[in-house]
Specification:
The chain is α/β, with parallel strands linked by helices. About 60% of the residues lie in helices and about 10% in strands.
Length: about 525
């Protein structure tokens, strides 16, 4: 009996360890086999051209990457270190958060399993985005906000404010986390007692002070980043079919968390149960508002624009802890409760986790479907497709640049422009030349335009333009011989055809100015 009780109390029983190992191996396989993506290279350029903030996002993703690249170089694994860290920090904090909250180590183990199995988290293991530092400091913010009240240590609000400020420096949606914390303090009895002390206010002040660099940068750039993000997600005209837009938003969340996990989180946050009765009012508000507020805010924003599945991603931090408590109750009911449902629940957890793992890996490596005879399902423009073929592009660049530099009237290295900001980042990373490559003005506004405005490239220094064409929409004969850009007229000198494992392929066309020195000044 004693041995059986010890087995039941293990935080990581054998079945869970096997599932976690499978998930981890799948994540590592993606990490080492999927090459750098253009968006990741774009953030690498940020890290080499440090600023107070950037057009697309706040600066923390670049600030954290910079010292790593200085110490260890600019390899793929170094660039993705923040992504791996976000997965690991989430797992460690999830374990200790759930263990402390529910007083059970097995609840901590279940929190790790829930967190690791989320598709949005599995993808985040091997793809660098500003979401990675956002997730790290969102976990730490909720964890410290819980411990501050549970342990009666009000000075921990300073550490909470520090982490909250770093989350704001990572990505703008962190403001919803800050709003959720304020609601928790305002609407719970324990929270209102905290507000009578100076510490939560000092913590909030610290968070806002850390965000000052972003405000200063926006002030210097006519509030362009704030305006872009608001226009991107909120201040567009309401969609003509809000019902359809809401379904698209909901579908994105069902993909990000899998339908069963998302619905189980929602259920566990609303339906009373023995496990929730053990939580204080403050804890229920902390986790409940943290889960629902991002979904409500970005669900409403999703009625006005196409929403990304990652917009309300901070909801899955408290959602993980909520679901861990419910699973602990379902899998390990009290001795007086009926245990007949436990085998069914355990089987469902194992089966659904395996299903999530399999579906994520099918999305990562869809070309394997063709090898086992499944046709017609291979997706195009997948992560694998985006990361493939850049070696051929680099070979072409290394071959062409010495030729075009001979015709450069200014002599020496000349500038390269690309038709897309993310692709420009990839070219810069391939050449390890963050200052040499830029995006053409003939594309949406991006950070390159701001750099170009602050320090324009002399027109004679531009000597190569690269443009990408998807073969699904463009044939070889349709690739133009000449193009006209705000930077001038260009003639084609070469085309590279890249075939990808997922059966898609694309063209990369290279152009030079029509005549040396003919590129006019940028508008």
């Amino acid at each position: 009996m004693f041995i059986e009780s010890r087995r039941a109390a293990r935080p990581f029983p054998v079945w869970m360890l096997v599932l976690l190992l499978l998930i981890l191996l799948g994540n590592i396989a993606a990490l080492v086999s999927i090459g750098l993506l253009p968006d990741e290279a774009y953030y690498w350029v940020w890290s080499q051209r440090l600023g107070l903030s950037y057009f697309d996002h706040p600066p923390l993703v670049a600030w954290l990457m910079h010292p790593l690249t200085v110490l260890f170089g600019s390899g793929v694994l170094v660039i993705r270190a923040e992504a791996v860290a976000s997965w690991l920090v989430g797992a460690v904090v999830a374990y200790d958060f759930a263990r402390r909250l529910y007083g059970e180590r097995r609840a901590g183990g279940l929190a790790v399993l829930v967190w690791a199995s989320l598709p949005i988290v599995q993808v985040g293991f091997h793809i660098l985005t500003p979401d990675n530092p956002l997730i790290i400091f969102t976990w730490l913010t909720y964890y410290l906000a819980y411990r501050t009240v549970a342990e009666g240590r009000p000075r921990l609000w300073l550490a909470t404010g520090l982490c909250m400020g770093l989350a704001l420096l990572a990505k703008y949606p962190a403001v919803v986390v800050l709003a959720g914390l304020f609601l928790t303090l305002l609407l719970s009895r324990a929270g209102r007692r905290q507000l009578t002390q100076p510490w939560p206010w000092l913590g909030a002040l610290l968070a806002l002070l850390l965000f000052v660099p972003v405000v200063v940068w926006n002030w210097r750039h006519d509030w362009i980043s704030f305006a872009f993000q608001l226009g991107h997600g909120v201040h567009q005209a309401v969609a003509t079919d809000p019902g359809k837009m809401f379904l698209l938003f909901l579908g994105g969340q069902l993909v990000a968390a899998m339908p069963w996990t998302f619905l189980a989180m929602a259920w566990s946050s609303l339906v009373p149960g023995g496990w929730r009765e053990r939580l204080s009012g403050y804890d229920r508000w902390l986790l409940g508002s943290g889960f629902w507020l991002p979904l409500i805010v970005f669900g409403i924003a999703g009625l006005t624009a196409d929403s990304g599945p990652n917009w309300p991603e901070t909801a899955y931090v408290p959602g993980t802890v909520l679901l861990a408590g419910a699973l602990s109750r379902w899998l390990y009911p009290p001795a007086r409760a009926r245990r007949g449902a436990r085998p069914l629940v355990l089987s469902a957890v194992i089966l659904l986790t395996l299903c999530s793992f399999t579906l994520v890996d099918m999305m990562r490596f869809p070309h394997y479907l063709d090898k086992i005879g499944v046709t017609g399902l291979t997706a195009k423009r997948t992560q694998l497709s985006q990361s493939y073929g850049w070696g051929q592009v680099k070979t072409a660049l290394v071959r062409l640049l010495p030729q075009v530099e001979k015709d450069n009237p200014e002599g020496g290295q000349c500038g390269i422009i690309v038709d897309n900001h993310a692709t420009a980042g990839m070219v810069a990373w391939l050449l390890r030349a963050p200052y040499r490559v830029s995006a053409t003005m003939d594309t949406r506004v991006n950070q390159y335009h701001l750099w170009e405005r602050d320090q324009p490239t002399p027109p004679g220094h531009l000597c190569l333009y690269m443009q990408k064409f998807d073969a699904e929409s463009t044939t070889a004969a349709q690739i133009p011989e000449e193009v006209t850009l705000p930077e001038g007229k260009w003639r084609r000198i070469d085309v590279v055809n890249v075939h990808n494992p997922d059966l898609s392929h694309r063209w990369y066309a290279f152009y030079v100015p029509e005549a040396p020195g003919s590129v006019p000044a940028k508008p």
